[in-house]
Amino acid sequence: MDFASLMSKEIAKAKGTPTTSSSNTTSNSTKPATKYLSKREAEEARKAAYHTEQKRLEEERAAKAVAKRKREEEAAEEAKAREEKRQRLAEEMRQRQKAKEEEEERARRRRLGLPEVPPTVGSDDGAKSDAAGESGNEDDEGSGGQDMPEEELLGKLRQLGEPAVLFGESHASRLRRYRRVTSGAAANWGPIATSLNPVEEKDMEVPGTVPPPSDKKARRYLFRQLVSYFNMVLREWEIALAKEDNASTHAGQVARSAMLSSKETMRPLFRKFEQGDLDESILEAIVEIVKAAQERRYVDANDGYLRLSIGKAAWPIGVTMVGIHERSAREKLHGGERGHIMGSETTRKYLQSIKRCLSFAQVRWPPEDIRQLMG
Q1: Local structure of 354: helix, strand or coil
Q2: Which of the residues 29, 109, 260, 313 has the least number of beta carbons within 10 Å of its own beta carbon?
């Protein structure tokens, strides 16, 4: 050992400072030992962390599902409340419309001198209550005002050869129809109510010419014949539809809609028959159509309908004025008969209903001559 090393060692001892080797030994003794993990312990730690993360994600998904289900339930409740409100408003609107129609019907009956109809209960499930409320006017029909079960009523109607159920017919309407049939008053029943007394089927044949307006008795009898004939055709139409099995198909629904529409649109025509204020040209054309249909000359009846709806006036096509001078043939374009009578919506509708009645009549009562079938 050299002199410098000894000197430094002695100085360190004097100052109390440990030597380098001792200080290194002390520092090495105080340093913590490094912990080594095995592969098994590391895999278990990884699995534990994975399961913890999956558990956290599952809890988040469950919370989101609960929140979503709650939102859906709230939306369903709101939709249900809106639907109930809509149905309630629709029912109130239907009740107001029904009350308005009943009031108009009562006013019409008072104007025509018909018996008063008692107001019906404004609920759809009151078929029996309708029968009880409407049977007050049935005493003159030999009914006694007694209700009967639906099955018994249907069986009795079938025994009488009547259709068990007609389109749009309630239990009360079936009961009234059965009472009218059993009391011998079937001739007084028709799809369209009218104050004109109907005639028997053998007396429905209309004359070839319309009686003059001065002969009020003959014209009144003519109106009775017309309403009886159209009611008979509509009733046969109802029976034919009731016997078919395609009521649920599209064709059956279209046929039913056409029949119901014809009934509704012919009511104004029946009102004109009751009041006797039908236009003379229209009355003559209707009598011509009905006369041809009763004789099963449906082509001639259709020709009468076309003359009534379209007319015989000239319908100019193309250029009608080719010069500055008025030509003699031009005067014929707008003179004479009118071109058509379809300007009135009401008139157009009941004329179309008459055409539909013709189409059904040629199926129900086919002509002997095949050439008389309409196209």
Answers
A1: helix
A2: 29
